[in-house]
Write a structure and sequence with these properties.
The complex is a heterodimer of chains A (about 110) and B (about 110).
Chain A: E1 4-7, E2 10-13, E3 19-25, E4 31-37, E5 43-50, E6 53-57, E7 64-70, E8 73-78, E9 87-94, E10 104-105, E11 109-113
Parallel strand pairs in A: 2-11
Antiparallel strand pairs in A: 1-3, 3-8, 4-5, 4-9, 5-6, 7-8, 9-10, 9-11
Chain B: E1 4-5, E2 10-14, E3 19-25, E4 32-38, E5 45-51, E6 56-59, E7 62-67, E8 72-77, E9 86-95, E10 98-101, E11 105-110
Parallel strand pairs in B: 2-11
Antiparallel strand pairs in B: 1-3, 3-8, 4-5, 4-9, 6-7, 7-8, 9-10, 9-11
Classes of the chains: A mainly beta (about 110), B mainly beta (about 110).
Chain lengths: ~110, ~110
């Protein structure tokens, strides 16, 4: 009965590869997010989708492309991986895009680029 | 330029005592503040929030205080319990659902 799930939990890959991280929520929420937690532990928002429509797109390299096939899924595809992409990536969801809605986070995906 | 800062990377408190976690922010226009708690290998979970129209919000053992003039937010946990050992993140709402997080404070409760 996991609310927000991510796969894989760990991902180790070589520089230059292309990889995807999947996220699914079974809460019936309209809004989903991707965050990156870097080596300094800051948690920074990357993207947000509301009902499959992109509503937040931070300054993220265009090698990162979110895809939302339906409102329960938000996948993150990363092209030409670089060493600096190593981080923990968290998916989250909220009932709506209303500012006071609580965001529920997945367990994270630790990406290591060698 | 970090808009929200948690200057203490770690804090150790005796069980039963009060834990006080602090957070400073830069912009007086921010109007909604949150605390999240994170255990290892899990995602952050929402703990408590406060709107800028209030200066205090309480939920059981957890109280958040907001000092707008000092642009300072604090979380008080009393009494502290071993299960409170975790990393605590403060967050501010910039706009809509965009949250900006601090870098976290690792709280350790000692028996």
């Amino acid at each position: 009965d996991t609310a927000v799930s991510q796969t894989p939990k760990y991902l180790v890959t070589q520089m230059g590869n292309d990889k995807s991280i999947k996220c699914e929520q079974n809460l019936g929420h309209d809004t989903m997010y991707w965050y990156k937690q870097d080596s300094k532990k800051f948690l920074k928002i990357m993207f947000s989708y509301n009902n499959k429509e992109l509503i937040i797109n931070e300054t993220v390299p265009n090698r990162f492309s979110p895809k939302s096939p339906d409102k329960a899924h938000l996948n993150l595809h990363i092209n030409s991986l670089e060493l600096g992409d190593s981080a923990v990536y968290f998916c989250a969801s909220s009932p709506t895009a209303t500012s006071t809605d609580t965001q529920y986070f997945g367990p994270g995906t630790r990406l290591t680029v060698l | 330029d970090q808009q929200v800062k948690q200057n203490s990377p770690s804090l150790s408190v005796q069980e039963g005592r009060i834990s006080i976690l602090n957070c400073d922010y830069t912009n007086s226009m921010f109007d909604y503040f949150l605390w999240y708690k994170k255990y290892p290998a899990e995602g952050p979970t929402f703990l408590i929030s406060i709107s800028s129209i209030k200066d205090k919000n309480e939920d059981g053992r957890f109280t958040v205080f907001l000092n707008k003039s000092a642009k300072h937010l604090s979380l008080h946990i009393v009494p502290s319990q071993p299960g409170d050992s975790a990393v605590y993140f403060c967050a501010i709402r910039i706009r809509a659902q965009k949250l900006v997080f601090g870098q976290g404070t690792r709280l350790t409760i000692n028996p």
